[in-house]
Design brief:
Chain A has five helices and 59 strands. Chain A has a four-stranded antiparallel beta sheet, with no helix packed on it. In chain A, strands 2-3-4-5 form a four-stranded antiparallel beta sheet, with no helix packed on it. In chain A, a hairpin with a 4-residue loop joins strand 32 and strand 33 (403-409). The longest helix of chain A is centred in the C-terminal third of the chain and has 20 residues, at 782-801. Chain B has helices at 22-28, 34-37, 398-404, 408-418, 421-433, 437-443, 446-459, 463-479, 481-486, 488-527, and strands spanning 48-53, 61-65, 68-72, 90-95, 101-106, 110-115, 121-126, 132-136, 145-150, 155-159, 164-169, 176-181, 188-193, 197-202, 212-215, 220-225, 231-236, 239-244, 250-255, 262-271, 279-287, 291-296, 301-307, 312-317, 323-328, 333-337, 346-348, 351-353. Helices cover 24% and strands 31% of the residues of chain B. The chains are: A mainly beta (802), B alpha+beta (528). Chain A binds chain B through residues 299, 316-318, 343, 352, 391, 412-415, 419-420, 422-423, 443, 445-450, 452, 472, 474-475, 511, 513, 515-516, 519, 521, and chain B through 1-5, 8, 10-11, 16, 18, 21, 302, 404, 428-438, 467-468, 471-472, 475. Chain A: It is found in: Nucleus, Nucleolus. Chain A: Its main location: nucleus. Chain A: Residues 392-641 form the WD repeat-containing protein 75 second beta-propeller domain.
Amino acid sequence: MFTGGKSFVSLPPAFSNDAKRLLVCTGNTVSIFSTSTGLQTCELEGHEAQVTSVIVVPATNPTSKVLCYCWTSSLDGKIRYWDFAAPELMKTIDIRFRIHSMVIPSLLHPRNDSTGKLPDLYAYISTEDVKQEGKPSSFGIQKCNLTKSRIVGGVTLAETRKPGHVTISPSGKYIGTCEKRKLRIWEIPAKDSEHVGYKKVRLHHTRSITTMAFHPTERVVAAGDVTGRILLWRGVGRETFSNSKSSNGRMNTDGEDRPGVRDTDDADSCTTWHWHSSEVNVLFFSSDGAYLYSGGKEGVLVVWQLDTGKKKFLPRIGSPLLYFINSPDPTLSSISCADNQIQLLRMPSMEILRSISGIKLPSSHMDMYEGFGSVVVFNPTAGLIAVPAENYRVQFYSLFDDREISQVQICERNHQPGDEITVKVNLVALSRDGSTMCTVETRLPEEGIGSLVTLKFWVCGSQKKQVSLSTVIYEPHRDAEISCIAFRPTGNMAVSSSHGGDFKVWVHRHELTPKDETVQRSGWKCHAVGSYKKKPMSTAAFSSDGSVLAVAADKVITLWDPDRNTLLAVIGDSLEPITNLTFIGKSEYLVSASASRGSKSSNPQLTVWSMSKLCVAWSYRLDIEAITCSMDDSTFAVLARSKPNGSADESSQHAEDMILLFNAEKAVPLSVWFVSKAQGGGLSFVSSDEDKVSGTKATDEVLAYINGAREYVLLNPHSEQDISRQRGFTNLDDTDTHGYASVYGELPEFSLKADQTAFPSMPSGKTWKGIFSGPSHALPPLPKLCSDFLESLLERRSGVVE
Amino acid sequence: MAEAFPVKPKLRPTSSKLTPTPEAKYWRSFKIPKDIETTPSKSFTFPINSIAFSPVAPHDFVATHSASVSIFSGKTLEPKPTISSFSDTAAAVSFRCDGKLLAAGDLTGTVHVFDANSRSHLRRLKGHAAAVRSVSYPRAADKLHLFSGGDDSVVKYWDVTTEKCVFNLLGHKDYVRCGDASPISDEMFVSGSYDHRVRVWDVRVSNVSSVMELNHEKPVESVLYLPSGGLIATAGGNFVKIWDVIGGGKLLYSMESHIKTVTALCMGKVARGSGEEAEENRILSVALDGYMKVFDYAKLKITHSLRFPEPLLSVGFSPDCSTRVIGTSKGNLYIGRRKAKVESEEVVGGMQWKIVEDDPGRKVLRPSYFKYFQRGQNLKPSEGDYLIKRRKKVKMAEFDKLLKKFRHREALVAALNRRNPESVVAVMEELVARKKLMKCVSNLDTEELALLLAFLQKYSTMPRYAGLLTRLANKVVELRAEDIKSSDQLRSYIRNLKRDVEEEIRIQQSLLEIQGIISPMLRIAARS
């Protein structure tokens, strides 16, 4: 199964030791991106549930900088050890608890082993013990011996009611976690063993704490709370932690010279900084400990000078910040933003070098306006989807490559993250050949004045790289909202239907100016207006040859001749307003879905109409979210939501919704898939190239399903065989710039062509001659080569047999 | 990374007007000079039949109207004293090739020859039995002869010194109304007549009949030799035809873009840059429909057209491309002059003196001098230079800056003070998008409220803004009723607003009535 569209920002990423790679937790896998190109280079696959942390084994000496090992933990209860250069799984530890967070302190401080034997490696994990049904699962922080692959019995640092994120100090001496209004900090002894005592400190605050950070050298702890305050405790645990080291036994127990510290907390002082207006998400000390980075919902990275409290800003990042991570390379760091984007920063100057962006996540605000189609739009021929984002942009995302192609600014407004949404891109439609895009944006009124609906037509260039505005139409249906836009498959015509009771047919015209033939003006003009009994028009569709336009007027379907704008026929009388309408390929059938939005409909229906007889062919009682039809034959697929009262048994929670594949002539579904989170999802047949997806040869269409959380899966509609995938990862480009080039840039004439010929890192059908060709430093890792080599030999022999 | 976008007004539908081509720009650059705009002497009461430019600098020009010929200075465009020694209306005028003499025909049939400078009457050429409507001197070098054509359908070739007619050229069967001399040969000329024929004459070969006869198919109003001497343009009816004379009188093109009769033709030039090579020839044609059209006979395309409010009778274009004169049937003279590039170029008595501006022994700039620090600032990049573009600065209006700082009320006031309704509405729309407009309105003090009310009164009934502004006006009155009641000034604004709204309601009602009348008719029409 081919999945994609994962969130890059669910967890903090990790840099490799040479800062050339960035390891990002993406669902069940860890994706590795090159920091110099921003492209994905490989993927660590193996976990069966969401990966919850990734820890790169730090380099202890300069020679080990090239080593690429990492530990990952996952909700499936396994801890794995990887060589991510290869990429290869080295070790798996099964601890049978769901792991929410993991830290390995002993990796951070170099161990001097006098015995020559490496001491055991211990990890501290935040676990969840799933008990019987009905009982709340218990959470705790436990210790795990990674060398011996087992949990250290009896050591439970804390029991909590919610899964906590464990934070570790850069020196590896302390770990901490924040829970509600307090911080818990433990000191990890320098010589860690299975039986060792822990000293702990609690710090209290009056608000819920959202994040915390440790100073790299001093005993300073920073914490951010939900109101936007940053608390800075200095001299944390002077009493508790320094007691063992009795050399500096300065006892300072007088309460009065500990400003800001709550009654019994063990700290010297507590300072409060308040700049953020809402929740602080990011807190991070710079590696020298002189600065504190903070960020939150405003999308502004604030740099505090620790001694003076002076601030510097990196404004207009455009989205709430989630994590800030710096790399072993002091000039590089990364910010994870809530819009599924990781920005790589050049450090002292804080300028954004490049960004790694995943699919735009649906914004929480968009759910507020029901009936607004915030659904993604498919471009079936190119395998692209257009995703409307919160910041008035539309993102083009490639389904097969699983990466962003481009973004288009639909409406020129300044976006402040966290503002109330008053302007939004409602609808996006793409013509079948992908050459034209149509968008609708709506400005919501303030106390009944100033609402505006704008319809825009865009011309897309090749590869969706450049999109230019062609026509702007203000208030196309007076102040009524547009419910649907459909393009004629044969081109140069579009229809927009509105809830206000009319639809308009738009045509694309080239205008030659009379005087000078060289200048050409093209634009979209209204060709015709139609309405049927003033009923609200909810959706519209063109037949595949473009000769018939079907517009759903409340509960009936009206059929029109789009060129002459005459009403041909009126069919049907469903029980609920029609929400979805599609002509099925080149067949004579039309499929419609009806349901009443808003309130849960009692009579949802899926109906197939025969166009030759103008009557119902067959129908089902199904609540349909999306319909798509194949372009060539008469199959179509629907995304059906099961009824809310049907989910009585909780075990079937994940199989609530389903995708059904039908042939229009028969009412028996051809195949069924069970999916989850269908609300706000989309479905489409997408034509695939054989070189990209090696599916069956029978068809070149695959079914793409995207769920409400913008994760997608490609299904093979015609056979059980899964779509296996060979993803075109780019090789990690090692042409780093040093010396002259890093100062003065590339020499213009000097091209590294030989290096840029992408060396295939996946199994290829090349013979052994081809495998070893090329310069030796550009060869793939040896294990990879070996399997390729052997494989090629096998192929040759089979050829001989035939 | 979010960018900062300035607030923009809504787009307006663009008219089909395009950005002017360089050619159109050139022809539009002929403007009435400011200093003579007001002089009343540019308009005469009688139709201006003919205009001629002197072939030598400073290219004085003459215009015939009524029984007089007015001479204008080519330098200042000021009228010199007129010649009015005609007994009847002067109809045609022509300069000799050196510009010293001037010949004019009148409706009595006499051709008069004057000194162009002293205006003294030198010769009278009598012989035509009817009005002379066409006079032309040879254009190359011959200073002794001239041609004339009259309403007696005869073309005469005159020896000017002896006042004798050398040849009577017969062949036309109707009035000869136009003629032109060849630009390359002194012996060749062409005449056009109301018998639809254009005849080419050569005084060397024959004195009996014409060398060539062309059928224009309409009474010929004007003929023109094109500079090569091989092409002829003829005008008559509402079209202009181009003929190839060397190629045996072949019709090359017929330009039919005038609506009414084309009355005159002349040569125009488009100066592109400087130098002779950069000049391209055009045919200027004027017609009774009030249009002047510029025709590029190389590409066979109309490159520009210009409309005048009156029927046009005659056109002239100075050989140095600086002046264009058009005469109308109502006696107005439209003089267009292009700004000369080199002002210092002066012509005195036929000799050219160039005042050289930059003297070679220029002082080397020293840091003690102020200009030293400004050197090179206006330097233009040469072709091969590598340009490093400075990042374009986003221009922010004052209200944009205030909006960026979230100072909403001040932004609204700043926009209102700019008195540009589009930008005010754009700011209001932006405030709506931020849900701050109502707050702004309730925070305005009395003076600012007066500003807003004045704006609303002026624009709230304007269709383009009405959707937003009428509702806003309603809200403003609701929100600030107390303040309005307490101030006389504000009450007067409200009175005006009320009056405007009432008028608008009346208009709407009458429109509704009209719609009520029309819609049944439309329905009937749709049914049939």
